[in-house]
Design goal:
By secondary structure, the chain is mainly beta. 15% of the residues lie in helices and 42% in strands.
């Protein structure tokens, strides 16, 4: 089965503007659990996270991301899109304003449209994750935490990633 066939089959789980964060989490976990369908595409890049969009339609988009030790997203939001990610290989740490948690294979983290977080690989081994957003990403805001206050640093537009 090809990625496009896989993404089409998976997209039926969460397609459309009414997809909940839980629907997106189920889609991410489903695809993350089928590494034989996407593993040959994965690349490891010491300069930064490697990523590839696997699917995009009017209702959602799906990304595959690899992480070497120490690689991070920095604090960011998803420009009003709901989302979820599931770890397929390795482990990642997710940090939001309430604290940090380890995300391991078989677990998905789903979030609403106003969510701000950072994802990073704090382990000594590479990691791979699947990310699903609805509607598809149009912007992302980057933040810094200054004391207990979030400061927006930049806004990125779709096409910059």
């Amino acid at each position: 089965m090809t990625i496009s066939t896989t993404a089409s089959r998976v997209s039926g789980l969460a397609a459309g503007p009414g997809a909940t964060a839980a629907d997106l989490g189920a889609t991410a976990a489903d695809l993350a659990g089928r590494s034989e369908e996407w593993l040959p595409r994965v690349r490891l890049d010491p300069r930064g996270r490697w990523y590839e969009r696997l699917h995009r339609d009017t209702g959602q988009e799906i990304w595959l991301i690899s992480w070497l030790p120490g690689q991070t997203t920095g604090l960011h939001d998803h420009g009003g899109s709901r989302g979820a990610f599931a770890v397929a290989l390795g482990s990642l740490e997710e940090r939001d304003l309430s604290g940090a948690r380890e995300v391991t294979p078989g677990r998905a983290r789903a979030f609403g449209s106003e969510y701000i977080h950072e994802v990073r690989n704090v382990s000594a081994a590479p990691a791979v994750s699947v990310h699903v957003y609805s509607p598809p990403l149009s912007t992302m805001n980057r933040y810094d935490l200054v004391g207990d206050r979030l400061v927006r640093l930049a806004t990125e537009e779709a096409g910059q990633w």
